[in-house]
Write a structure and sequence with these properties.
The chain is of the alpha/beta class. The chain has helices at residues 13-27, 70-76, 79-88, 103-111, 136-144, 191-198, 228-237, 247-255, 269-281, 292-299, 312-321, 329-336, and strands at 2-8, 31-37, 54-56, 62-64, 67-69, 96-100, 117-120, 150-153, 181-185, 205-210, 221-225, 240-243, 259-262, 285-286, 305-308, 340-343. InterPro entries: MJ1255-like (IPR005262).
Amino acid sequence: MKIFYGVQGTGNGHITRARVMAKELQQAGFDVSYQFSGRPAEKYFDMEIFNGYRVKEGLTFNTAKGQVSYLKTALQASPVQFYKDISTLDLSAYDLIISDFEPVTAWAARKQRRKVIGIGHQYAFGHNIPRKGSDPIANQVMKYFAPATTGVGLHWHHFGQPILPPIIETPEFPANIQSDKIVVYLPFEDPNYVLSQLSCFENFEFHVYSPEPVVSKFANIVSKPLSRAGFQKDLYDCAGIISNAGFELASEALQLGKKILVKPLHSQMEQISNAAALEQLGYGRTMYDIQPAVIEAWLHNHHAMHITYPNVAKIVVEWLQQGMVEMDQAFIDNVWESVQILPVAQ
């Protein structure tokens, strides 16, 4: 079976999920062509598993100082190029089309009257899940950014809805954790400001990853460039993460039993809703601005949850192999029955 797989390239969460899917698709013998959009071609890294992938401009959100600007997003969009990319993407040679919230693929499929499977966290918002910070623009963006004929939504909990657990790597629980080590990933914030706000916590060691890292002049802070291997190594033995409220990193942290503090992007309904879900489930804490008092309280609070999720990528690939029959309640319940939720012993 030949598959065309489009992946949203803004941020790294979609790409992280696609890496896990790519491994399972490859093992199952699928012939997959990958397309990414949402960032310049030179900004992608560690992409070896997506052999021969292509890049399109697509659509992305304008962010500055931790906030999404829908006006600037609209102004920087290139509708002529976007329409051209949609019109020139020929999907006729493919048996199956998948979009991880990637708009060029999704809209090209709709234009060619082809079915498209949407796999990702955003497709969970078609169901009754925790939602906060919603407004008419955000609702329309979520609905029409990358529409799918069949959505496979993902979340940390089912909330009584037909959605699946996260698609993530499922490594062994770390045997040794460095109790003072914190991984920080706030790519939409001013890195100099982030470092200055963390510098006063001298009893902790911060590993700060940024798209454009700045030199750290603080003994307790290591500033690092984006690297999948380096990030995973630090994530594995750290005590906790401070990040924006993206879905994939929090999912990995829960799988590894890390405590979580999120700072959602202002005016970004998905991230604000993610933060609300983490609070509701008791899986993490939230700050809406970078607040040293909140950070300090969180650093000295050892509450963390260890959630063992199944290999959802393999489950989805087997579902594709079996003809994509409707995921009924029995199917959904069977997947969630294997999820275990335990507090992390301190």
